[in-house]
Write a structure and sequence with these properties.
Distance between the termini: 58 Å
Strand order of the largest sheet: 3-4-5-10-7-6
Low-confidence stretches: 1-20
Helix content: 10-25%
Subunit structure: The basal body constitutes a major portion of the flagellar organelle and consists of four rings (L,P,S, and M) mounted on a central rod.
Number of strands: 21
Keywords: Bacterial flagellum, Cell projection, Cilium, Flagellum, Periplasm, Signal
Organism: Erwinia tasmaniensis (strain DSM 17950 / CFBP 7177 / CIP 109463 / NCPPB 4357 / Et1/99)
Function: Assembles around the rod to form the L-ring and probably protects the motor/basal body from shearing forces during rotation.
Family: Belongs to the FlgI family.
Number of domains: 3
Order of helices and strands: HEHEEHEEEEEEEEHEEHEEEEEEHHEE
Radius of gyration: 32 Å
Shape: flat
Length: 368
Amino acid sequence: MRNVLIRSVLLLTLAVSALAQADRIRDLTTVGGVRDNSLIGYGLVVGLDGTGDQTTQTPFTTQSLSNMLSQLGITVPAGTNMQLKNVAAVMVTAKLPAFGRQGQVVDVVVSSLGNAKSLRGGTLLMTPLKGVDNQVYALAQGNILIGGASVSAGGSSAQVNQVNGGRITGGATIERELPNNFGSSNLVNLFLNQEDFGMAQRISDAINSRGGYGMAQALDGRTVQIRSSANGTSQVRLLADIQNIDVAVAVQDAKVIINSRTGSVVMNREVMLTQCAIAQGSLSVTVNQTQNVNQPNTPFGGGQTVVTPQTQIDMRQSGGALQTVNASANLNSVVRAMNALGAKPIDLMSILQAMQSAGCLHAKLEII
């Protein structure tokens, strides 16, 4: 009897632990002041196989090339019409990581600015990358890796993926470091990835329950502030320990995300339906227009040949049967109920909006 009781308690404990979900603080938050910074630059790509900019339509390409050559000691005669096919003007972007040090390398993204057909096989010439303060923080240069391909012959062409943009792995070298004040204060802010008052309070309680990490306080639904005597390198150890603390994740808000551009519909596991009836049909309108030629009855009657358009409109509505959707308490049941309607993603968006207005869909509807 005792063994049976022990096994029952163990099974109950396993069931409760399976229902409880815990995430690390590092997966739920970011540290205030520790972030990437965007860099941007304008440059030239050379060595293209006749797929560069058409300089008659992109005069800035030839102007940039002339300026670059003059800096190298080569003077282009005024009025020279350079017909270039192997050069393209590009924009170069990169991310300056937090705590980036001078001499470190970062990846860069190169994108065509003019009307180049492809950047395949091109080499980016030295390009300064500037921050929002107009200061140069890195220099980019190197061979571009293109992930797409394109072919054209006889007036026909085919293309796979993008050929007007690519990456250079480790293509930029950091030349200037960003000043940072990490460790100069005894306050550390943790920013939640998603606004949630309950989660902010649980993170604060989890830190305070461990002890030795200072006093944590939830300022709002997005920020948890930690006040500690640690500073400098001590804050590194402090954050290393705090970020690995597990926090129980409570039930999330029921939410349905609709992408109006692609027709994608995503819902989390908390979405529930109450019983409702839905009439879903499709309306198709077809417009056909033909040209009728009317000629005079007699060749010499003085009449003229007239072309008159004839338009025919056909409107049909199919479906429209009243469907009953039963109450559902989990995601699988919701998906099965939606599939039973036979609705396409575009139709499903309208159905979900109408269901929310009718109070049948218990979830927040967000359209992106």
